[in-house]
Amino acid sequence: MDGQRRQHRILMVSDFFFPNFGGVESHIYYLSQCLLKLGHKVVVMTHAYGNRSGVRYVTNGLKVYYVPWRPFLMQNTLPTLFLTFPIVRTIIIREKISVVHGHQAFSTLCHEALMHARTMGYKVVFTDHSLYGFADAGSIHMNKVLQFTLADTDQAICVSHTSKENTVLRSGIPPEKVFMVPNAVDTAMFTPSPKRLSHDEIVIVVISRLVYRKGADLLVEVIPEVCRLFPKVRFIVGGDGPKRVRLEEMREKFSLQDRVEMLGAVPHAQVRSVLISGHIFLNSSLTEAFCIAILEAASCGLLTVSTRVGGVPEVLPDDMIVLAEPAPEDMVRAVKKAIDMLPGIDPQVMHLRMKGLYSWDDVAKRTEIVYDHAMQSPTTSLLDRLPRISHLWSLGGKTVLPGYDNQLPSMVHSRIPTGIEEVPDFEALRADLSSRDDFCEAQENRS
Description:
alpha/beta
């Protein structure tokens, strides 16, 4: 690039984006904002959320296409393979996209957009945000889909070294094509309480989706034992999900209504206010590629107790987190150790350390390098693509799927007008409007 930064035009694609809240949604939003600051063009494509459909602009002119499809399972759209092609093609041409970046292996919209973008000859990048197994039926099918997608992807990104190993094993993608770029935290938003909390009462905060994967069943066994051993400990539980009923039953069974506060779903804007009311953050996940919630808690000055699973041991230094095996007795031991460590924890110092450790600006710069590698990768034809894909599908599917997809552009051309209007860039439009204002002002002064 001769020392000059290449300007990319990026389409972020995922079923998971705001107004839904989660780690993937936050990652896409903050990464997009920082890429905009670096001078790149970023557009987001996701499905409609309730009445939110069509084109919307969010902070700093980030353009979001809420395409008119409804989710049918866990915020995922119905897999259609080829029906998404016309709208993906239209957005790519309208926005003059150069790189399509898909997020999350569970997103059907992501997989379909990447397949169509490769068919049209565009560079594609995929980010895997989760860990999956190898034995259960759901993981087997998901891994097969991931193999198909990554066999034809220019570059891939994982959020931790553990996640990278998991993705390489599941998909068979060459390790040299996979980059490790961690998540980050907005330290300006997650700041400690200006007044240090008293240790007369220890408050343990849990903010998580109350589902099996997040270890809600583990909390049902850990919380009563901690309350029995430490009379001055109180819990605040934020989050909702199918396992909330079990936590409510546990609270009733052990008469812990005055020591376990159930908040229900907590809006992201109110997460900090909940975190700064506690001393310890408890994460009981059974699987986790990278836990952004831990970063948010540490940035607010909380000492973290977490299960030793997935990429969690990579997230924080040893003096900022106490790790435990995902077993009730070991979790209780870890909580006891964290309570003993509390007098030596300074929330303000911990916050300053987090500012030095994690930054979305740094994540954006590292992702920018991945885009540069993708743009430099050789362009492949259908004949080059088929050998990489054909071994993944049995019988006629070996060539029918990519072959049919390769014929879609000509089929769409015959049905949809080819004259798709290219939209002006946000900055260019603003500059054009300001120049018109200057011209009009000059004309008025002249008259």
